[in-house]
Write a structure and sequence with these properties.
493 residues, alpha/beta, Beta-Lactamase, Rossmann fold, Helicase, Ruva Protein, domain 3, 4 domains, five-stranded parallel β-sheet, 15% strand
Length: 493
C-alpha cells in the first residue's frame, strides 16, 4: 500500500514537472511573440469571430495614435470603420498586399493608404479569427500602387483588344468590289509564310489587315507583335527588335530583354512604317530575314527564330529604292506578296456602314442612344477623307460628343466635313442623278485612258492614280468588258 502511494506521488510529481516545463515553454513563446510584434515596424492585428480585437501590436496602435491597452478587447469597427476583417472571415477570403485607404482623420500622421495582407485563421475546419499584417513602408506602398496601375492598364487594353480585335476577314465587310478583291488576295496569301507588304495611305487600316491575315494563317494561336518603325528612336530600334543581354549598355536591365523577334517567335511580326527604318537597321533586318536568327546586343550567340513578316508603308518604296533611301535587296525580300489597300475615298459605299459601326462602339461604351442623321451621312460621303478610316472614326467620335440630342447633325461634325456639304440639301432624285453623272464621267475617263495606253491596265491605272485591282473592280462594276481590252492588247502585240 505504501509502495503504491509512493509510486503515485512520484508520477504526480513527474506530471507536475512536465506541466511546469510546458508552461515555461509557452511563456517563452509568448515573450518572444510579444517582443517580435513590438519590434516590428509593420502593423499586426488579430480579430476574433465576434469582431473584437484579440491582438494588436504597438506599431499599429502608434499609427492610429492610441494606447494598446485601450484598443485590446474593443470591436474592430470602433477602431477602423471600413475594416474588412469580418468580411475575410465570413467569405473565407485571403488577400495579399491589397491596398486599403483609411477614413479621413483616423490616422495620427494623416497618411491613409497602406498595403495589407489579410487571411482567415481556421481550426478544425472552422474559421475562428482573422489576421492582418499591415505594411507602412513607402517603398512597399509605391510598389503596390504601381502594380495596381499596371493591372488596371492590362485590364483596360485587354478590354479594348476584345472590342476591336479582328478575328477573321468576315469582320471586315465591304460593298466595294476593289476592297473585296484585296480581301480575297490577302486570304490567299495568309496560308503561306512568305513576307507580305501592305501598301496604302495613312489611316486605311493596314494594322487591322495585318491582324486579319495573322488570324487567318496557321500561326493564329501564336503571338501577333507590332512594331512602329517610325515611333522608336533610331538608337533604341535595334534593342527593341533584337533585345539585349545583361550589361549590354548603360541603363540596360540586369536581366536583359527579349526583342520583338523573340517575342513573336512562332507567330507574326508586323513592321509598320517600314519605309522610315534607318539605313543601318535595314541591313541588319535583311540579315535576320535571310538567316532566321537574331543576335542580341552584347551577345555573340545567335538565337533562332521562326517569324512570319508583314510589313507596311504609306510610301512608294520603289521610288525610295531609286533615291537610295531604301535598300533594294530588302525591298525585294519584303515585296514578295504586295497588297494595296484602297483609300476610303474610293470606297464611298462603305462609309455609312463604317460610320454606324464606330457609332455603335460609342453607344455601347457610354450608354447614350445616338444615331446619324441623313444630312450627316451626306456630309460623310461628300468628303474626300485624306486621313481615311482613322479620320472617319475620329469624326464620328467628335460628333457623338458634340451632340446633346438623339442625332448627330452636320454641325456636330468637324468643320472640314461641313464645308463639303452642299448649301442646299438635295432631293434623293437629284443625288441619284449626280451619282449617275459622276459614274458616267468616271466610265468615260477609264475608257479614254485604256484606249490611250492600248489596253495596258498597269499604265492606265497609274495614270488614273489608282491600283490595278481597283481598276479591274471599277470596270466590272461599270460593265466594261475586261476581256475585250485583253484581246485587243494581244492583237496589237
Amino acid at each position: 500500500m505504501a509502495n503504491e502511494f509512493v509510486s503515485e506521488t512520484d508520477a504526480l510529481k513527474k506530471e507536475i514537472e512536465e506541466l511546469r516545463e510546458e508552461n515555461r515553454r509557452l511563456y517563452l513563446k509568448s515573450v518572444m511573440y510579444e517582443q517580435t510584434l513590438s519590434a516590428s515596424n509593420d502593423g499586426f492585428l488579430i480579430v476574433g469571430r465576434d469582431g473584437y480585437i484579440i491582438e494588436i501590436n504597438k506599431a499599429y496602435c502608434d499609427y492610429f495614435g492610441k494606447d494598446r491597452k485601450d484598443v485590446l478587447g474593443t470591436h474592430i469597427y470602433s477602431l477602423i470603420s471600413n475594416s474588412k476583417m469580418i468580411t475575410i472571415m465570413e467569405e473565407n477570403l485571403a488577400e495579399l498586399d491589397a491596398m486599403h485607404t483609411f477614413p479621413d482623420g483616423l490616422t495620427a500622421s494623416g497618411e491613409r493608404l497602406v498595403a495589407v495582407t489579410r487571411m482567415p485563421i481556421i481550426e478544425a475546419g472552422e474559421t475562428i479569427a482573422s489576421v492582418a499584417i499591415v505594411k507602412f513602408s513607402h517603398y512597399t506602398i509605391n510598389l503596390a500602387k504601381t502594380l495596381r496601375k499596371l493591372e488596371d492598364e492590362v485590364a483596360y487594353y485587354r478590354q479594348r483588344l476584345n472590342r476591336y480585335a479582328i478575328s477573321s476577314f468576315d469582320e471586315l465587310p465591304s460593298r466595294n468590289p476593289a476592297y473585296a478583291e484585296v480581301k480575297r488576295m490577302a486570304e490567299r496569301f495568309a496560308s503561306s509564310d512568305l513576307p507580305i507588304l501592305l501598301l496604302g495611305e495613312t489611316g486605311v487600316g493596314k494594322e487591322v489587315f495585318a491582324n486579319a491575315i495573322h488570324q487567318a494563317s496557321g500561326r493564329a494561336s501564336q503571338p501577333f507583335v507590332c512594331v512602329n518603325c517610325a515611333s522608336i528612336p533610331e538608337e533604341l530600334l535595334e534593342s527593341e527588335l533584337f533585345g539585349y543581354v545583361d550589361g549590354a549598355f548603360t541603363g540596360s536591365r540586369r536581366t536583359g530583354k527579349k526583342g520583338k523577334f523573340e517575342i513573336a517567335d512562332g507567330g507574326t511580326l508586323f513592321l509598320d512604317e517600314i519605309g522610315e527604318m534607318p539605313a543601318q537597321m535595314q541591313s541588319k533586318l535583311l540579315r535576320v530575314l535571310q538567316n532566321q536568327e537574331v543576335e542580341k546586343l552584347g551577345s555573340e550567340k545567335p538565337v533562332q527564330v521562326n517569324v512570319r513578316i508583314i510589313a507596311a508603308t504609306n510610301q512608294d518604296l520603289s521610288q525610295a529604292v531609286q533615291t537610295k533611301a531604301f535598300r533594294p535587296d530588302l525591298f525585294y525580300r519584303l515585296n514578295v506578296l504586295p497588297i494595296t489597300i484602297p483609300p476610303l475615298r474610293e470606297r464611298i459605299e462603305d462609309i455609312p456602314d463604317l460610320a454606324c459601326a464606330f457609332l455603335a462602339e460609342l453607344v455601347d461604351a457610354y450608354g447614350r442612344n445616338v444615331c446619324l442623321s441623313e444630312r450627316a451621312i451626306d456630309a460623310l460621303q461628300e468628303y474626300s477623307w485624306p486621313g481615311n478610316v482613322r479620320e472617319l472614326r475620329n469624326a464620328i467620335g467628335r460628333g457623338f460628343m458634340m451632340t446633346e440630342g438623339p442625332e448627330i447633325l452636320p454641325e456636330h461634325l468637324p468643320v472640314s466635313l461641313q464645308e463639303a456639304l452642299p448649301a442646299v440639301p438635295l432631293a434623293s432624285e437629284d443625288k441619284k442623278l449626280i451619282r449617275n453623272a459622276r459614274a458616267e464621267s468616271e466610265r468615260e475617263l477609264i475608257l479614254q485612258y485604256l484606249k490611250k495606253y492600248d489596253g495596258n491596265f498597269c499604265r492606265a491605272a497609274q495614270a488614273l492614280g489608282i491600283h490595278r485591282a481597283t481598276l479591274y473592280s471599277r470596270m466590272h462594276a461599270m460593265g466594261i468588258p475586261i476581256e475585250t481590252f485583253r484581246r485587243s492588247t494581244k492583237r496589237a502585240s
